[in-house]
Structures are given as C-alpha cells and as structure tokens.
C-alpha cells in the first residue's frame, strides 16, 4: 500500500468537522499545524518551501508536517533547516549542512552555518514559505532568529510566508529588554528575555514594528492561529524542542540558566540532565557531582569534559517557570565573587542578557529585587507594544 495513502488514512481518523486535527492529550487545543483545511487553502496550486524541524508534527500520531502535506498533494519544493538540523539531531552550535531528505529526496537547505537565511536562488522556484517550529519563548532561543531571517528573505523576494502557530511553554513577560548595540543571533529583537508571545504573534510584531533589515520592511504574512488556547495556559511539549532541552524541567529552567553559557559554570551539558544542574570543578561550589562526557546527539565537546564538577542538582527543584536570577546571584557568591573567573565569556553573557547592565549589577552585588526594578520601565513600554499583536485572550 502507498505510504502517502497510509498517512492520509491515519489522519482522516482524527480530522474534525472544521478540517482540523485534534492533538492527542491536548484537550481543546488545536495547534496551527493541525488545521489542515486552512493550511491547504493557503497552499493550493503553489510551490512551497518549509522551514521545519523535528517538532513540526501533526495529529495524535505526530506525523511530520512534510509527510502530511505530501499526502495531500502539496507541491513541496524545498526544506529550510534551523539550528540542530531538519531532524533535530545536531549539537548546539554545530554546523548544519545542505543535504537531501533521506525519506523524500527533497533538498534540505541549512539556515545555520555559512548562511542564516534563504537566498534569492533558493526562493526562485517557491511561491510561499511555511514556518512551523516549536518555540520555547526565550529571546536567545535561535529558532525565532531563523524565523526573522526567513521573513527578511520573503520580504526581499516578494514571497508569501505562512506561520503555523504553536503554544509558548514559557509564556511570561520578564527579564531585561535587549538594548541597541547588542543585536545578535541570540538577541535579534528589542524584547525581554521572556516575551510572552506565540511565534505567530512575534512574527506579527516583527512585521508591524518594522524590524526587518530590508528595503521592504514587511513580508506578506499569514498566521494560522491555534484553537482552544489563551495566554497563561500550561503546555507540555509533545516533542523535545532541541537535544539539550529533553523534558519539561529543562524547558522551565532554560530562561534562567542560559545566562550561565557566558560564565565558567557548566549547565550540565555532557550529561543526561542538561539545563537541570550547575557545576564547576571545585569542591567548595557544592555537594552534587557530575562528570561531563561527550554524548552523541547532545554534546560532543562539553565544558569540563571528563572533569568532576561540583554544584547543585535541579532536576527535582520545585520551580514552576518564569525567570529568576537566584541561581546566577548564588553561584557568583559561591565562586567568591570573582568577576574574571565567573564571567569567563563576558561578551557572550552580555549578548544573552541584551546589554552590559546585568553583568555590572551582579558585580555591584545588587539584589534580585533591585535588578528587577531596573527592568520595570522597559517592560512597561514593551507590554504596551505587545498588546497590539495579541491573537489570543491575554493573561487573566
């Protein structure tokens, strides 16, 4: 029996009367990717490029969006792959190369390596680019930077872009807003670390605020909205978004622990609990121990490889989410408040934070409350901008 026919039959069992596909275990939530009728209407008769990865799944069987569209006769010409690759198996920061998808033979163009966005040649035979990648709601998570560059390419080349919306598992507004002069691939936009938007809402903000670095400041954007979701609703991701965010605890802690990537403290890369532990090769730092080792698909060259690290185990830490500085302030103190030792990659820390201010505040021994107070004016201004782009009922 034809593989595409099998896929179509399996999907038919879960398609609702409005053409959507009910996600398993999600109650009334219907992600944008599951609204098949709406998507097909937008893609009918067009040549399609997909910006997707392993999180781009549809329905209770979690069939990849590529397979779903091919089963429905959509003319998919090309795949654009972000950090970690099309199948999501590459290490953080690892170069992702162009290839052909082994299952379908469709060309896969890497957007993480020498080039960060599609070229005019890549888009020459494409009418519309579909973006469907699960975000985690943190400014420095690079999938949203890839979305930005794809929007720029579409704007420059007169192509349509369709974003299939998905929930934000870290749906808060918190943290320092990125300042001018600190734009990078881990901070493309002047938004807080936690920006409290879905990818569809963020795409609308990028368009609406004129943040595209092109002559055409807007791309022709359509967002396929979710059904049955509102801001603040909890959401457990059905697929891990990247190799080093393997579970719900790591996703919750990621916005607060990612700052440590600019320090001499390990976040547990090279273990099976990344972003759920902190450590340094000094017994005075803590009682919990771990030894980072190369792990295929997680990290082949972890910090402090084969060295015993001491610190804290956060796997069962009762943290419900959002952003906290308690870990940063605590470890700066544990390591003797030595600026040069702690901030071993100071510029990278500043790019993650969005300015030099947070590092200076930590060195000045400011409390978390005092640091938070310094964010208030920027956050208040951001919340007013955010209101313009909401697609869903806001926090209660």
Question: How would you describe this structure in keywords?
Answer:
alpha/beta, 3-stranded antiparallel beta sheet, 12 helices, globular, 396 residues, 7-stranded mixed beta sheet
Describe it for me?
The chain is α/β, with parallel strands linked by helices and 396 residues long. The protein has twelve helices and 14 strands. The protein has a seven-stranded mixed beta sheet with strand order 5-6-4-1-7-8-11, with helices on both faces. The chain has a three-stranded antiparallel beta sheet with strand order 12-14-13, with no helix packed on it. The N and C termini lie far apart (50 Å). Residues 1-26 and 88-94 have low confidence and may be disordered.
List the topology elements.
Blueprint: H1 3-12, H2 36-43, E1 47-52, E2 57-58, E3 63-64, H3 65-71, E4 75-81, E5 99-100, E6 107-110, H4 120-123, E7 128-132, H5 143-157, E8 160-164, E9 173-177, E10 192-195, H6 199-208, E11 220-224, H7 248-257, E12 277-280, E13 288-290, E14 309-313, H8 326-334, H9 339-342, H10 346-353, H11 357-363, H12 368-387
Parallel strand pairs: 1-4, 1-7, 4-6, 7-8, 8-11
Antiparallel strand pairs: 2-3, 5-6, 9-10, 12-14, 13-14
Helix pairs in contact: 1-3, 5-6
């Amino acid at each position: 029996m034809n593989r595409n026919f099998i896929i179509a039959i399996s999907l038919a069992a879960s398609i609702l009367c409005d053409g959507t596909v009910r996600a398993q275990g999600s109650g009334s939530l219907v992600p944008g990717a599951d609204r098949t009728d709406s998507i097909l209407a937008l893609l009918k008769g067009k040549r399609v490029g997909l910006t997707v990865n392993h999180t781009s799944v549809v329905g209770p069987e979690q069939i990849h969006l590529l397979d779903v569209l091919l089963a429905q006769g959509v003319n998919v010409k090309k795949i654009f792959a972000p950090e970690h690759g099309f199948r999501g198996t590459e290490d953080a920061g690892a170069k992702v190369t162009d290839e052909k998808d082994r299952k379908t033979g469709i060309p896969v163009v890497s957007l993480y390596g020498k080039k960060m966005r599609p070229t005019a040649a890549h888009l020459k035979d494409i009418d519309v680019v579909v973006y469907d990648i699960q975000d985690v709601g943190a400014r420095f998570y690079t999938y949203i930077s890839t979305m930005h560059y794809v929007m720029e390419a579409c704007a420059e080349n007169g192509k349509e872009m369709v974003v299939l919306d998905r929930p934000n598992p870290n749906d808060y507004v918190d943290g320092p807003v990125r300042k001018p002069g600190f734009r990078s691939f881990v901070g493309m936009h002047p938004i807080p670390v936690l920006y409290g938007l879905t990818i569809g809402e963020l795409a609308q903000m990028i368009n609406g605020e004129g943040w595209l670095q092109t002559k055409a400041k807007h791309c022709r954007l359509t967002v396929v909205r979710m059904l049955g979701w509102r801001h603040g609703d909890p959401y457990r991701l059905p697929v891990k978004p990247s190799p080093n965010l393997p579970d719900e605890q790591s996703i919750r802690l990621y916005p607060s622990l990612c700052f440590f990537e600019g320090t001499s403290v390990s976040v547990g890369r090279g273990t099976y609990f990344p972003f759920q532990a902190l450590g340094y090769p000094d017994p005075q730092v803590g009682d919990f121990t771990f030894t980072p080792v190369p792990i295929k698909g997680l990290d082949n060259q972890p910090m402090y490889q084969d060295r015993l690290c001491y610190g804290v185990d956060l796997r069962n830490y009762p943290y419900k989410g959002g952003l906290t500085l308690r870990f940063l302030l605590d470890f700066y103190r544990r390591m003797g408040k030595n600026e040069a030792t702690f901030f071993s990659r100071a510029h990278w820390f500043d790019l993650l934070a969005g300015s030099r201010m947070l590092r200076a505040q930590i060195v000045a021994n400011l409390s978390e409350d005092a640091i938070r107070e310094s964010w208030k004016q920027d956050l208040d201004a951001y919340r007013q901008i955010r209101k313009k782009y909401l697609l869903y009922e806001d926090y209660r």
